[in-house]
Design brief:
Elements lengths: L3 E5 L5 E5 L3 E4 L6 E2 L1 H14 L16 H8 L5 H17 L5 E2 L3 H6 L6 E3 L5 H10 L22 H9 L7 E5 L2 H10 L2 E5 L13 E3 L11
Parallel strand pairs: 3-6, 3-7, 7-8, 8-9
Antiparallel strand pairs: 1-2, 4-5
Helix pairs in contact: 1-3, 2-3
Length: 223
């Protein structure tokens, strides 16, 4: 993929070039706007289990649900965790009507050959495909869901697997993320990382190589 000029207006007024041959997209906060629905699900879950006073919604961003559950309810059996995940999936289904694609996403993905991009998300495979469908996005055939890996973000396992799906070395791939945990995962995998400041202030995304305000700030990408 030839180098492409990408500009940002986050008080930086810079232009820069990125040369990569594979794109690894996070989903929530990058391709689809679902943060408010997610936060309502977690708020309902926390209230149900008496965790409202200590629960930090910000810590759910970019992480697998299983990791958040185990943090706040340590000592659960695998069966109990599975029940909590099922409950969260049910809550998420109730929030699907507000899931929409960010401006420019559908057009951007349509401009990239299918073998050059995939999705690496902390959401389960089922939830990922449901949300993409609700937003009018056709999911790649092979993706990385949070329930298909043993270690969630900020561990690099997901992005390493994503690079393998594209048959590319990690350093040849650009990770597009919106959360600090995902940025750290991409960097740990050896990828270049571009952050979208959709769910976090740019100051929280400083570990990324580049930051833009929205995905529609990226120009058309040719291969």
């Amino acid at each position: 993929m030839p180098a492409s000029a990408i500009s940002t207006d986050l008080n930086l007024n810079l232009e820069f070039e990125i040369s990569v041959s594979g794109l690894l997209f996070d989903m929530d906060g990058v391709l689809v706007r679902s943060t408010q629905g997610d936060e309502r699900c977690w708020t309902r879950w926390a209230a149900q289990y008496g965790l409202s006073d200590t629960f930090d919604l910000r810590r759910t961003h970019g992480r697998r649900a299983v990791d958040t559950i185990r943090e706040y309810l340590p000592g659960l059996t695998d069966e109990a965790v599975a029940e909590h995940l099922s409950r969260l999936d049910a809550l998420s289904e109730e929030e699907q009507e507000i899931v929409i694609a960010y401006p420019g996403v559908v057009e951007l993905l349509a401009s990239i050959p299918s073998y050059r991009w995939t999705i690496v998300t902390s959401a389960s495979e089922k939830l990922m495909r449901s949300r993409l469908s609700a937003a009018g996005i056709v999911a790649p055939r092979h993706t990385v869901g949070g329930d298909t890996i043993s270690m969630g973000k900020p561990h690099p396992e997901g992005y390493l697997r994503g690079a393998t799906i594209l048959t590319r070395r990690p350093e040849e791939c650009l990770v597009i993320e919106d959360a600090p945990a995902g940025i750290r995962a991409g960097k740990a995998a050896g990828c270049q990382v571009l952050a979208i400041a959709s769910s976090h202030h740019p100051s929280e995304l400083h570990e990324a190589d580049w930051i833009v305000g929205a995905i529609d700030q990226l120009p058309p990408i040719s291969t």
